Automatic annotation (TrEMBL):
Domain of life of the organism encoding this protein: Bacteria
Occurrences of domain Activator of Hsp90 ATPase homologue 1/2-like C-terminal (ranges): 16-121
Signal peptide (UniProt feature, chain positions): none
Pfam families per UniProt: AHSA1 (PF08327)
Annotated InterPro entries: ASHA1/2-like_C, START-like_dom_sf
Protein family according to the UniProt entry: Belongs to the AHA1 family.
Protein's recorded name: Activator of Hsp90 ATPase homologue 1/2-like C-terminal domain-containing protein
């Protein structure tokens, strides 16, 4: 996968890899963590986890001031190791999962060129922080 001008966010999650993979990929779990803060919600989540399959997360601020679709197609899936996808605007991302309790989850992504890079980095890192908090409170 050829990524250009990337940003990276990473976390360590103190749970087994099988649980982290499940939380990352299953819509009922995604709905619980996929937001950078409490002011955001997921209005719709679809995830067809196969190579060539797609995903759609419709995200919105609770006050209605912002809304966007995050949609892409999986280009590589190696269970418990990595996911690669291409977004509808042709930007690419790679997610890696290394280790087992703790799992290091790293997201490398091509940012939107016209948007503030620091804001995009913080948005992504905040989402991963929410994932960690959700995962680690599960039994």
């Amino acid at each position: 996968m050829d990524l250009k001008n990337t940003l990276t966010a990473s976390i360590q999650i103190y749970k087994p890899i099988s649980l982290v993979w499940k939380i990352w990929n299953e819509p009922e779990h995604i709905a619980k963590w996929n937001a950078p803060s409490d002011e955001w919600v997921n209005e719709k989540i679809e995830n067809n986890l196969i190579e060539g399959g797609g995903f759609l997360y419709v995200m919105a601020k609770k006050d209605g001031s912002e809304r966007f679709d995050f949609r892409g197609t999986y280009t590589e899936i190696i269970e418990h190791e990595r996911l690669a996808y291409t977004l509808d605007d042709d930007r690419k991302s790679l997610i890696t999962f290394t280790g087992n309790n703790p799992v290091t989850l790293t997201e490398i992504f091509e940012p939107v060129a016209s948007l503030d890079l620091t804001m995009q980095q913080e948005f992504c890192q905040s989402g991963l922080n929410q994932l960690k908090a959700y995962a680690e409170q599960l039994i």
